[in-house]
Amino acid sequence: MATIKFTPQQSRAIDHSGSALLVSAAAGSGKTAVLVERAVRILCREEDPVDADRLLIVTFTRAAAASLRAKLAQRLSAELAKRPGSGHLRRQRMLLQRAPICTIDSYCLQLLKTHFSALDIPADFTTADGPQLAQLRRQALADALENAYNDPDFCAFADLYGKGRSDAMASRVVEQLHDFLSSMPRPEKVLEAFCAQWEEDAPLDETRWGQTLRTEARRAALCARELAAQNLEDLENDPAIDEAYRPALESDEAAVDALLDAIDAQPWDAMCEASRALSYARLKAVRGHSSETMTRIKERRDLLKDTLKRLQETIFLCSEEEFLQDRRTAAPLVRALARAEREFNQLFYQAKLEEKMLEFSDVEQLALQLLQNEDGTPTPLAAQLSEEFYQVMVDEYQDTNALQDTLYHCLAKPDGSNLFFVGDLKQSIYRFRQADPTIFQQKLDRFVEYGQPGPQKLFLDANFRSAPGVIGGVNAIFTPLMSRKLGGVDYGPGERLVPGLGELENYGGYAGDCEFRLVQSERPAGDAEYIARRIHQLLDPASGFTVRGETGPRPPRYEDFCILLRSRGAFADYAARLESEGIPVYVDRAENLLDAPEIRPVASLLRVLDNPAQDVHLAAVMLSGMGGFTPDDLVALRLGRKNGSFYGAVMASEDEKVKAFGQWLRTLRQLSQTMPVDRLMEEIFARTGCLAAAGAMPDGSARRENLRQFAAFAAGCGGHGLAGVVRAMDAALAGEGVPGPEQGQSRPGCVTIMTVHRSKGLEFPVVFAADLGREFNKEDLRAAAVFHPQLGVGLTLRAGQGGTYVTAPYRAVQSALAQEGLSEEMRVLYVAFTRARDKLVMTMPTKNALKLAQKMALRIFSGAPEPYLLEHCASRGEWVMQAVMAHPQAQSFCRQLEVEVMPQPLASERELADRFTVSLEADEVSEPAPACPVHLPEAAPDEALACALREHFAWQYPNEALTRVPAKVSVTALTHEAAEPTLERPGFLYKEGLTAAEKGTALHAFLQHADLAAAVADPEREARRQVEAKLLDEALYEKMDFSRLRQFFAGPLFARMQSAQKILREYEFITARPAADAAVDKTGNYGQAQVLVQGVADVILEFDDHLELVDYKTDRNKTPDQFIAAYRPQLLLYAAAIRRRFEKPLTKLTLYSFSLGREIDVQP
C-alpha cells in the first residue's frame, strides 16, 4: 500500500489531543483519509493503547459507515503486516467488527435495544419510516383534529385558512409543526417557548421578531445608499447631465441617509413613518442629449426605488399598536395549535407502540431521555458511556441537527475534550431533512484558532480532487458570492480552495479549466442541445481535450461526463435531447425504489399474492423474467377465456406453461398466508432467481442491493402480512416513495444525469452544472404557518370577512427562512461545482441575453456583486453571471452584451485566470436538409391493391356510438340530463347566511343521521348531538327550519315509518340500463349494450308483505304535478333496482316535499 503523505494541517488534525477539535475540511481535502488515519494511530500506538470498541465514529450514512470500517480494517491489516507479532493489533482487528462505527440513528437504536426497560417500550420493537406508518399517522391526526375541534380557539385557528369548509390546511400545519419539533431536543419545552413568545407583552422593538426586521431594514437601506452613491459617481462620466440630474440624485442620497438614521436610532413607529415619508425628486429633462450613462442612472434609480418599496411592503407593515392587537388575537390560536400538536404526537406515539414500531426521530428522542435529565444534567448511563468512549468522532458534522448534537455531547466527556468534528459548512445541503448548519457555524465562531487553549478549530483547504484551473474557477465564482449572510461562511482564507499538489508542474502540467456558457434560446430545449453539442466537441479527437487518467492524460469517454441538475423535473428533457443526438445516457432516477425496473415486477408479485384479481400486476409478473411470457402469450390466454379475471384465465388454462406458472403462483400464495414477510421475500428470491437476474443487468451490484433494500422495507412493514406491505407501497406511491440508495450512481459507457444532492461525495472528470437559469423554488415560504428554531411560530391572520394578512412575526420568520433557504442554494451550487475534476462547464439558458446582462451589471458595485441584491436574485444563474462578469476573462463577453463591468483581480496567481472561458452561445436550430429528388420508374397502378387499401381505410368501428357513452352514470345524471347544474356558492358568501336550497339540504342531512325517536321528542337537541358528532355543520344547524321537521314528524308518512319492520336509509344500489338511455344522441345504434346506473334511495320502508320507497325533496315553488313530472323517472329507476334486490313487492312510491309539508304519491 502506498504511503500517504499528509499536509501539515492534516497532520495536526490527525495527531491532535487534549481538547475538542472542529476540522473545517473543504471539498476534496481528504477528510476521510484524515479520519481513518487518526483512528488508526490511536489504535496502533504502543503507549496508552486504546481498544477499537472505545472509539465512537459517527457517519451520515450506512454506506459511509461500512466504507469507513473497511478502510480501517485495511489499514490495521497493513500495520499488522509490519508488526506481525503484535497481539494488540490482532485484537483490534477483531474488535473492529463490533466497534460503534455507524450512523447516530444506528447507535441510538442499539442503545434502546439494550435499555428498553427503562423507557417502557416493547423489547421487540422495530423501526419504520413514512410509508409504513402512513395509515397510523393519518388516523392519529384525524383523531387529534376531531378532539381539537371541541376547542373554540383551534376552530378559530382552522377558520383562518379553511373558512369552515375544509380542515386540510389546519391538518397540514399540525403535521408540519410535529415534524419540525422532531429534530429538537426536548420538543415540549421548545413548543412552550413558542407559545410564550406570543403571550408576552413586550413591544415589537424588544422582541426577536422586531430585531430581525430592523436588521433587514438596515441592510436594505445600506444597499439603497450605495445605489444612490453609485449614481452620483456615475455623473462624472457625462458632464452634460450633471446640472439636470445632480439635485434629484443628491436628494435621493439625503432621503436614504435620513431613513438610515431613523432605523439606527428611532422607535419602531417613528422608523415606519420615516419610510412612509420617502419621496423622490424628478430628474430634469436634458433635451437633445442621450447617453448610456443616462440610461444606467435611470435604471439604477429604479432599482433603488424598488428596494425601498420592498422595505415598506415587507418590513414596515404594521405599527406597534397593530402588532399588539395581532399578538392578542394570535396568542390563543398558537396555544391551541400547540395543544393539537401535543395530542397528535401522543396519539401517534401510542399507536406506534401498539404496533411495536418507532420512527428514527422517536429513537433519537428516547435516547436523549436515557442520557439526559429534564434539567440538562447527564444521567448515570451517560456518565458511564462517556467514561467508556476514548473518542467521539463525527463525520459530516455540517449535516447535524440540534438533537443529534446534544446526543454527541452527552456521550463525550463532561468538558467535551474528546470530541472530534469534521465537516464543511459549505457543503451543508440537507436542510430539508432538518439539518441545522448554524450548529457548525456557532462552533466556528466560538472555537479558538488551532494551538490556543480551549476547544480549537482547524481548516483543511487543500483540494486534491480538482485540477488547478477548476479550483481557480470555483474560487473566482464563490469569493464574491458566498458570505456569512449568503452561504453561512465568508469565502476567504481557510475556506477558499488551494491546489493540493501545489504548483502546476506537480500536476504534470495538466491545468484543467472552467467554462461559463450563456445560452440564448427561445426554446426550453436550448440548454440541453448546447450540452449535447459540447459533449460531441470534447469527444472529437481534433479538439485535443483530455482528462486525467491513472497513468496520465487520456481521451475522454462518455462515462467521464455528468450533467448535474437541481431537481429531477428536467431529467426527461435533457435525456431525450442527448439521446436524439446519439449520446448514450444513464439517468439516476432511483431515488424511489418502487420506480426501479428490478423492483417493479417483485412489487407486482407481492400485490398478486395478496390479491390475485389484479390483472395489470399479474400481467406484469407474467411478462417479467419470473414468468417468461410474451405479450402474444397473454393475448392468446385472454382470447381463450374472454370473461372473468385474468387470474381465472390462468387457473383455467390447459396450456402446460401456463399451468406450471399457475401452480408456482398457487404455491407462493399458500406460503404467503403462513410465512412471515421476511421469510417470504427470501423464498421469492430463491424461487425466482431475481437476485441473480438483477446482477446480470448493468450496475448489477447496485440493483441487487436495491432488491435487498426493498426486501427490508417489505419485512419492516409486513407485521400484519402482505396487506400491510401493499398499504405501505400505496402510501409510498402517494408520497415521496421508498428511499433508494444513499448516493448517486453512474454507468460505464453513458453520460450520467443526476441531481446535485445525489452527487454528494462523488466526482466526475467533466461536470456540466446545467439549467442555472431555473428560478428558485420558494413555495415553503408561502405556507399558512411558518416555524423557526429561534423565532418560533409565524401566523397570518384574517381581516374581518376578507383574506388573510401577514403579521410582523410571520414576516420575521419568513425573512429568516428565506435567508437560510438561499444560503442552502448557495451551498448546493458549491457542491455541484466541486464535483468536477478536470473541467467544469456552467450553462445558463436565457431568452434575452442583452437584457439579462444589463440587469446584472446594475447589481455589481466596484466590480463585486452587492450582497443584499444577491439575496433578491431569481436564480443561481443570476448569481454566477454577476461573478463571471467581473472576471478578467469576461471583458469581451461584457462588450458583446453592451455592458461595462470593472474586472476584479484574482486572489492569487494560482487561480490561472486564462483557464476560465466566458461566452455567449447562440441557439442553433437545425433546419431539415432539403429532400433529394428521387426518380422512380413508372409503373401501372395495381387496382387490386388500391381496392384493398380503400376498403381497409373505409373501415369503421361497429360500436363507435358506444365510445361516446359513459360506462357508469348516476341516476340524477340519467334523469335530469337537461337540468341546469347547481353551482356551489363561493366562500365569501358563506358568512351571509344560507339560501333556501341550502336550508333544505340541512333538513335532508339531518334526517340522514337522525336518531328518529330522539328527533321526535326534541329535534333541536338531536341536531345539536349531530353537530357535536361532526355529522352536521354548525352553520346548517343555526339555519335549520325546525318547524318543517315538526310538521314532518306529525304527519302520516312518519307514522307509517314508525310502524315499519325496518327502515333502510341512504340505500345505495347499482343497476343496469340500456346504453341508449345514457346517450346524448338518442339516434345512435347502441345494440344490446348497457351502462351501470348508480344511485342512493333516501328511505326504504320494509313491512311484512311489501316495501315502500320514499324520497325527500327540498325544492321550493313547485306544485305536486311539477314534482311528479320532475322526479317520477328517478323514482322509477330506483324502483326497478329495488325490485331486483328484494323478494317483497314494492307497492308504493312517495315523494315528501318539505316546502309543501306533505307526501305526493307517484304511480309505479
Brief summary of the model shown:
The protein is α/β, with parallel strands linked by helices and 1164 residues long. The chain contains 46 helices and 31 strands.
Give an overview of the whole structure.
With 1164 residues, the protein is α/β, with parallel strands linked by helices. The chain is 49% helix and 13% strand. The protein is built from 46 helices and 31 strands. It has a 7-stranded parallel sheet with strand order 3-2-6-7-1-9-8, with helices on both faces. Strands 16-17-15-18-22-12-25 form a 7-stranded parallel sheet, with helices on both faces. Helix 46 (1120-1141) links the parallel strand 29 and strand 30. The longest helix is centred in the N-terminal third of the chain and has 35 residues, at 320-354. The N and C termini lie far apart (96 Å). The model is unreliable at 927-932 and 977-997 (pLDDT under 50).
